[in-house]
Fold each of these.
Amino acid sequence: MRDQVQSADAFEQFVLLAVAELETAGETPTHSYHVTQTAKAHLADIDRQPFGGVERQKVISALGRLADKGLLLTEQTKSATGKGRPGYKLAGDPEEVLEVLSATDEFEPYVDAVWSS
């Protein structure tokens, strides 16, 4: 899993980190909306320019690419209105994802925030 995480681009890693945070909080499988909101809440915790913003469509695309790479699992879930929506959760251990991304200077403050919560 380490190589897969390291080979993801910076935005995908940021989205993966948001899913790892939700996973450690017991909030997975999660919908793209919650991943987007979680990522937006941590833009100040990363040491880089904020990717030109965090838009839901960009997050949905990143979630799909991460699932294709085997880093995320998807399952059909129901939204509050009863519509079928894909839910996402990590394919591996959230601690391993956090460990890999903590070695990246730009994400270290976000990882520290997740570990301390």
Amino acid sequence: MKRIVILIIFIFTCIPFAYAGQDGFAANSDEILRMITNPGGRAFLKIEFKVNSSKISKTAYPVVDSLGTALTSGPGSTMQVRLVGHTDSAGKSEYNRSLSLKRAEAVKNYLAVHFNIDPARIEVQGMGEDQPIASNETAQGRARNRRVEVINISKKADVPKDYQELDTKNIW
């Protein structure tokens, strides 16, 4: 019985990564939308920025454009989301928190300008280095920790009925 419970917990914590492309990061609008459709759903995005800057790098525009497409189509067109910026542990903690917030704001502003998304639909938060998903001991781990997370903060009633999936929390 204990093994079954552990397996179930493992499966539900890995669901976002099952939908994702490269290294658990969503790579296109379809993946983003699948991952965030239910309230509380989340997706990790690999949005790169210039060093010590909140300027989105040119290589990251396709990812941000995919987010914009996801938030302007189907169930995404009515979603309220929170963009959470994250950094690696290089630098001071206070600076990283401020930088991660500025980066989340840069993504929000880009979406408002280029996709005409109402800024009121998007909250921003900066976590700095406080929630790593990989070790900061390696360059690869630090790269994975520099990310923007998208979280659906809509209430269940706000999600169109056609897009509501099985509510597994209430089944268990």
Amino acid sequence: MRTPRTLLCCSVLWLLSSGCAGSSAAMREDAPGAEAGEPSTQAAVQAPAAPVETPAHEPPGYGYTKEDPIKVGGGPDGEHEYLHHLRGPEGQRLRYNRRGSCCGFKDPSLPFGGGMLDMYEVTYEGLEKPVILFLDMYRREEPRAPSGFRLD
């Protein structure tokens, strides 16, 4: 019989290992035939160890603010799958880099009563400057594309 303490310890270990799996940040150039999880031939860029400040220069709206993140669920794999299907407005493949975690939130429905959002710097060919998108790997709602993007 599993005790609540055993379940809590297992949950903590799972959460810690999931966070570590999603913390490697590599700027990826998606080439035709490249999969979302494949490493780039470019040098890896390490994510900052400490949470990153929320940038104030992004346009307001779905995915661009901590108040209205893209709720992909599924942990780090859910974030990568979403970003793999996200495209520029003309179908351009994305390059993205996980910038770190920010913006702790409370949610009593989650195992630890809350979580943090992940910030991804995203760009594609023709985009003047990269944008920051906020993703929630804990909660899921049917994802949609932020303004200036589309889902394929």
Amino acid sequence: MNLPVFLFQPLVENSVEHGFSNKENECYISISCQLENELLHFLVADNGSGMSQEQLKTFQCSGKTSPKGHHSIGLANVNQRLHSYYGEEYGLLVESIPGEGTIIDIVLPSSAINIEPSFFQPELSKTISLSQNPSQ
């Protein structure tokens, strides 16, 4: 695969630092991948605190202005790098519901991979459970 470095790290870090800041257990992050209509979708989902409409708007506008707030800096950076690397039609799509969680769809061209499409079968999706309490 030919993916930019630090593609997932800022997204997972946001989930842990912001989404799970008020949770002590039952925290999860799911990272999955699928190939659909010549587009590669990496989905990063969590059951954290979610983002408000204002936070989502800040992220969506960050391509035109400097992002405000720590939460959107990592997202904006990843999105801008994807736009530069693959083109403006690719990048992050963010859906979030306050109190329920966030789903980030990393949309890339299928040319970002040089492996067989059969690699992206549903059974290869992995879910990673995280606990903020290291003793569990």
